[in-house]
Amino acid sequence: MTFRTTAITAIAAAALLTPALLGPVTANATPSSGVSAVTLAETDIPAGLLPFVPQGVHVEVREITIAPGGTTGWHFHDAQIYAFVRQGTLTHPGADCKPVVYRAGEVIEEPAGKVNTHEGTNLGTVPVILDVLYLMPPGKPLSEDAVAPACAQS
Question: Where does the record locate the signal sequence feature (predicted)?
């Protein structure tokens, strides 16, 4: 196992040991439709506690459901996130509007930053269910709204 995989596994395990089952909430990105999320676990790892996260990190694990025809809206993340497609097929265009399709059983790695604006859409007939691991800088939202790129506005 690589150091990166070991680190992600350790952080996810730490988050799962600190459950905070909050119930359904609306996803942050707008304009979204047909999207709901449940926080399964979250914790904050203080600065200096782990050598590979000297600034600290907010760890959150969420189950996100996108109904058929639903969309997350265009958004980006301030840190790389990881998602596992548990059910359905997610169409995921990035800032270049070229869709990447993720199916059940596949892992998504979304890079950080506004240049990586994207949206997730369910063009299928069954709900898409994602298990998402957020490793965010302290004080940053899980996602930030973004204007659709020019190629998506036609």
Answer: 1-29
89 and 41 Cβ atoms separated by less than 8 Å? no
Structure tokens at 60: 């959150």
Specify which residues 94 forms β-bridges with. Answer: 118
Residue carrying the six token digits 């782990």: 50
- What is the rounded CA–CA span in Å between residue 53 and residue 70? 35
DSSP secondary structure code for residue 50 in this structure:
S
- With bands split at pLDDT 50, 70 and 90, how would you rate the model's confidence at 54? confident
Distance between CA 80 and CA 41 in Å, rounded? Answer: 18
Of residues 1 and 121, more confidence is placed in 121
* Structural domains of the chain, ranges and CATH numbers in brackets: 3-152 (2.60.120.10)
Q: Which token pair is 65?
A: 């459901």
Q: Please state the rounded mean pLDDT for residues 7-36.
A: 54
By CB neighbour count within 10 A (0-12 exposed, 13-18 middle, 19+ buried), where does 100 fall? exposed
User: pTM of the predicted model, to two decimals?
Assistant: 0.78
